[in-house]
Amino acid sequence: MESKNTGMQAASIICLLAGIWFFISPWIYGTASVANSWNSWIVGAAVFILAAIRLSNPMKTVAASWVNCILGVWAFISPWVYGYTVEHGRFINSLCVGVILFIAAISSATSTHSTHHPVTTHS
Known about the structure:
Helix content: over 70%
Shape: elongated
Radius of gyration: 17 Å
């Protein structure tokens, strides 16, 4: 039971760090003045908040990991949506963050030990 929660914590910390990185990446890549940088700020902040919520109450917040999984897919496809595939650094960054977030969020969502036991009836 404890190793599953440890796996959830590690995966959620990776999501937390990915959120921080995605949030600050427009400044790192020198594109903070570009309008589509709001995507990185909003998604990064949302990922960070959801991962923090997940870490604070693992048994009741599995949905937060599934939302982060969806945000990972969004981070991956957003360069095409916002048209910054020619900005190679940001483009590769979004792809990497998307994949890392997707994998870590699925791992977090599926590694929480359930304390729910099915009810059995005796004849």
